[in-house]
Design brief:
This protein is of the alpha/beta class and about 200 residues long. It has two domains: about 130 residues, 3 Solenoid (UDP N-Acetylglucosamine Acyltransferase, domain 1); about 30 residues, no CATH class. The chain starts with 6 loop residues before the first helix and ends in an 8-residue tail after the last strand.
Length: about 200
């Protein structure tokens, strides 16, 4: 275990950063390794978001943040891999993650919580088209191909071409999905469409 940072050094840093640090909780600064790691992880994610090297540098950066990524994986630019719980993302060998795809393992507002909402497992030889959204608790089977723009909310069988027909009304949302309401409240508030009508 590393020794805690020197209190005098932290106080000196606070003097540099804050014009008036009186009342600042120095214990928060002393015990801020968790916060620093979180900031560094997010910074690495931002770098991976735009840097070249989809078959080398970007997968390497996401591995450093905690994601499990296999060999010969291509991660296109502008891909978001959950930055609060990257350890719950598992991508197998020979996969392609398309441009502007987002992979989420958490679905809550506010500060990082101890647990994610579930893992995302992408097995070997999967192709994910551009602009896909992959939500928590999803397993994409080996050899599957995900159609561009698909929102993956449930498991995808192996060797399946997966995607929906053109979008349309799905139901009536009676509870808004905002910070004031949880995702569970939102899903409980969804009502079916009446035949022949839409919102």
């Amino acid at each position: 275990m590393e020794p805690p940072p020197d209190h005098a050094a932290i106080t000196g840093l606070a003097n540099l950063l804050f014009t008036d640090y009186r009342g600042l909780d120095l214990n928060l600064l002393v015990n801020s390794r968790f916060m620093l790691r979180n900031v560094l992880t997010r910074l690495i994610h931002k770098i991976a978001f735009v840097m070249p090297g989809g078959g080398s540098f970007r997968p390497w950066l996401h591995r450093k943040c905690g994601a499990s990524i296999g060999k010969h994986v291509w991660i296109a630019q502008l891909v978001y891999i959950d930055d609060l719980h990257p350890e719950n993302v598992h991508i197998g060998d020979n996969c392609t993650i398309g441009l502007r795809t987002s992979i989420f393992t958490h679905f809550y507002w506010g500060a990082k919580q101890p647990k994610s909402n579930g893992s995302v497992v992408i097995e070997n030889d999967v192709f994910g088209g551009p602009h896909c959204v992959i939500l928590p608790n999803v397993r994409i089977g080996e050899g599957a191909v995900i159609k561009a723009g698909t929102v993956v909310t449930r498991n995808v069988p192996p060797h399946t071409f997966w995607g929906l027909p053109p979008a349309g009304a799905l139901g009536v949302a009676t509870v808004p999905l905002t910070a004031e309401h949880s995702y569970s409240e939102f899903t409980r508030g969804i009502r079916p469409l009446r035949h022949g009508t839409h919102p």
